[in-house]
Structures are given as structure tokens and as C-alpha cells.
Design brief:
The chain has 13 helices and 15 strands. The chain is α/β, with parallel strands linked by helices and about 425 residues long.
């Protein structure tokens, strides 16, 4: 099975077709397994002999395994042998880099967590030092769990900022000064000799919530809004991460504030030009200060859990600002689901409920008759790691033909998620 290294090779047409068929069956088994060979043949519209040959190669590569007998058909006969993905056939490394902390997760091929390590460092630490610490932790994880390097499938990295997908670099990252235009992907690929995918952290969060969080039971497009030191959005369209022409889709923090409802507000609005300034956590804390709430050396979660009507007044204004932004995103993208994530939402059920009710009320006023499911994120800090691991896993299931026309293994518009 050579699918994951195809971009480095020059295959014949027959070899290319062989690998495309391997990927088709592997994707089918991952999505719908366990399946019998007969079921795979029927679903893939391929001859049974061809399916048996391909399954043999996948078994030899330890990417699938036989798990025993299934039920016989209504006409009786021999019970079929069932095939499913081999969880320990390959492993994934997911990385979530923040300004002062990094989480490194080792997962099996199904995405199940095997181990998780947290690395702390001072804000402003040089990129080389941070990446060196990450690689050291990765090496240790593989050593402790006795995973040879040829069992490592790929690496997915979640990182704040605007990503240069072609070169595997950051265009811009306000929270990681000095990281822009540095060969981040190349460093990891050179060390581990496997594909590495770099993605914006909020886009990873959106995919994490879509796969395993608030959006997993709902079909259709999804927008995930993250509220933290800054703000951002991740858009899932037609089961793809929507990046936009140059990767800047979702950079909503740079949109200029337009919120007439705040004109009479007393706390939140104080000359901020952009929504990133208005809805960031520092802005929310300053609004609480103006309301007479002492915030110094106090966690936001503790503050928002206080039973104080002044806090709810501030949150009312915050919800108005959040909804003024969100309703325009809904009008633009018409998603099925909106997911709010980040500390203000996770710390305050009151804010989550207020924002949801306001958004529904605002959309009801429009002539477009738009409706949307509004949910609070459920994965918290884990969402970006879940998304990063999913990106890493995708290197095994990416359509093989697309690898001939893309400069690297990064996710693109033609990628198919499972």
C-alpha cells in the first residue's frame, strides 16, 4: 500500500488505478465497516475477485483486519468473514500550538487518543525552541508506546494565524511573533519523513466540533465561531473546510463593527473599530470593570458564574454584538448549524442562551426566512486537536488522483473527509 507516498513517485497508469482502488475500498471500510467481502464488492461495484485481491494487500499492509464471522444471509449458507479498519495499523500525531502552550496527541488510525502531553513555554519563546520541544515530545511518545516510525502515518498541526498552504508556513500570526514565513511543515517532515498538514486553529476547531462535538449529529453546512483573546470563524461547506481564495476565510475579527443595538450600551462599546477588538476577552473584562466588577487576577469563568445582575447586563450587550456579527454570516453562508465556542460561551450558560434567542429573533425579522440550529461547543480545549488529528488521518483517504495535481499533502477543495 503506497498511497501515502504517491506524491514522491512516478507510477504507471496501472499502478495508479491499483492505488485508487485500494483507497476506495479503504475509505468504504472506514466509513461503513465492518463489512464482508461480498458487501464491499456490492457497495464498490467491483468484481469479487478484484475485491479479494485488494483486501489481501490491505491485510498485508496491516491497514484492515478480519474480525470474525458475520450473519449468514436469509438463504443461509456460509457465514462471511467481516473486515474492518485496523486501529493500530498506523498512528497519528496531532498538535495544537498556542502562544504559551502546546498539546501533542498520539492517536490510532480511528482517531482514538492513545496519549496526550502538554508543553508550556513563555509567551514570545522563539519558534525553534518551541518546535524543538514538540519534536522531542513526539519522539518520546513513539518510543514509550513502542511505535516504529514506519507506523506513523502523518502529522496534523493546528496553529493560530493565516496559513500559507502551498509552502507550509504562516503568512501572519499576531499571537506568534517571529513565526511567519518559517518552514514549519518542512521541519516536521524532514524529521519524521511523513506528511505534515498545517491548518488554522479555528478551522481545526470547526472540523473537530463537526466530527465529534456539537455538530456531529447534524448534516449540512456549519459555522463555528470562536471567542477568545481574538475571534475567528471556521466554515464547513459540503463536508470541506472552506478556506477562501488565499486562506483568509473566517478572519471575522477584522470586520468593522456595525451594531446599532450597542449605541445605548453602557459597558462594552468603547471606541473599538473591529469585532475582534469588541468581542475579545480583554474587551469583555474591561466592560465588567466598567460595570463595577473587579476582574484583576480573576478567571473569566469564576466571574461569569457570579450571581450578579451587573454581569448579566454586560453579557446582554456582548450577546447583542455577537449576534450582530453572526446574523450577517448566516445571511452570507446560510449554514444549517452555528456553533459558539470559547471561554465566554463555555463559562456562561446565560450568554449561550441569550445569544441563541437573539439570533433566532433577528433572523425571524428578515425576508429570507432563514433558520439555523444554534449550539454551544462541547469539546472545549480538545476541539482543535480533534480537527488536527482528522487532517492527519485524511492523508490515507485523500483521493489519490488529487495528489498528482497538488504541491503537497495539505487538504484542498477536492479532499474527501470520512
Amino acid at each position: 500500500m503506497t498511497a501515502i507516498t504517491l506524491r514522491h513517485s512516478h507510477q504507471t497508469d496501472s499502478q495508479l488505478l491499483k492505488e485508487i482502488n485500494e483507497t476506495r475500498l479503504l475509505t468504504l471500510i472506514a466509513r461503513h465497516g465492518p463489512l464482508s467481502r461480498a458487501e464491499i464488492s456490492k457497495e464498490a461495484h467491483m468484481a469479487k475477485a478484484t475485491v479479494s485481491e485488494i483486501i489481501g494487500r490491505l491485510l498485508e499492509a496491516d491497514l484492515v483486519k478480519e474480525i470474525g464471522k458475520g450473519d449468514s444471509t436469509s438463504r443461509g449458507g456460509k457465514r462471511p468473514t467481516m473486515i474492518q479498519l485496523q486501529p493500530t495499523g498506523r498512528y497519528l500525531l496531532g498538535v495544537d500550538i498556542k502562544r504559551d502552550e502546546c498539546r501533542v496527541q498520539l492517536s490510532d488510525l480511528t482517531g482514538k487518543e492513545v496519549d496526550l502531553q502538554v508543553i508550556n513555554y513563555a509567551v514570545g519563546t522563539a519558534m525553534d525552541e518551541v518546535i524543538g520541544a514538540i519534536i522531542s515530545v513526539m519522539d518520546q511518545l513513539l518510543l514509550v508506546h513502542e511505535i516504529p516510525q514506519n507506523r506513523l502515518l502523518s502529522i496534523g498541526i493546528s496553529i493560530p494565524g493565516l496559513v500559507d498552504y502551498v509552502n507550509g508556513e504562516l503568512w501572519l500570526a499576531d499571537t506568534l511573533p517571529g513565526w511567519d514565513h518559517k518552514p514549519i511543515v518542512a521541519i516536521f517532515e524532514d524529521h519524521f519523513q511523513v506528511p505534515c498538514l498545517l491548518e488554522n486553529d479555528v478551522k481545526c476547531m470547526a472540523w473537530g466540533e463537526r466530527l465529534s462535538g456539537a455538530g456531529q449529529e447534524i448534516n449540512g453546512d456549519l459555522i463555528c465561531l470562536f471567542l477568545g483573546d481574538g475571534i475567528g470563524a471556521g466554515v464547513i461547506h459540503d463536508e470541506h473546510i472552506y478556506r477562501g481564495h488565499s486562506g483568509g476565510a473566517g478572519e471575522i475579527g477584522y470586520l468593522e463593527v456595525h451594531c446599532p443595538a450597542l449605541e445605548k450600551g453602557k459597558y462594552l462599546r468603547n471606541g473599538q473599530k473591529y469585532y475582534g477588538e469588541l468581542l475579545g476577552i480583554s474587551s469583555l473584562k474591561r466592560a465588567l470593570n466598567r460595570a463595577g466588577i473587579e476582574t484583576e487576577n480573576r478567571h473569566l469563568k469564576d466571574l461569569l458564574e457570579l450571581d450578579d445582575p451587573r454581569i448579566n447586563e454586560v453579557l446582554d450587550e456582548y450577546a447583542e454584538a455577537l449576534v450582530s456579527l453572526t446574523k450577517n454570516l448566516v445571511k452570507s453562508f446560510n449554514p444549517r448549524t452555528v456553533v459558539f465556542t470559547g471561554k465566554p460561551i463555555s463559562s456562561s450558560p446565560y450568554l449561550a442562551a441569550k445569544a441563541s434567542s437573539l439570533l433566532h429573533a433577528e433572523l425571524a425579522k428578515t425576508a429570507l426566512h432563514l433558520s439555523v440550529d444554534v449550539k454551544a461547543g462541547t469539546l472545549g480545549r480538545r476541539s482543535a486537536l480533534v480537527g488536527a488529528a482528522a487532517l492527519a488521518r485524511q492523508t490515507l483517504f485523500k483521493p489519490i488522483i488529487a495528489q498528482y495535481f497538488t504541491p503537497d499533502m495539505s487538504l484542498d477543495r477536492d479532499a474527501v473527509f470520512i
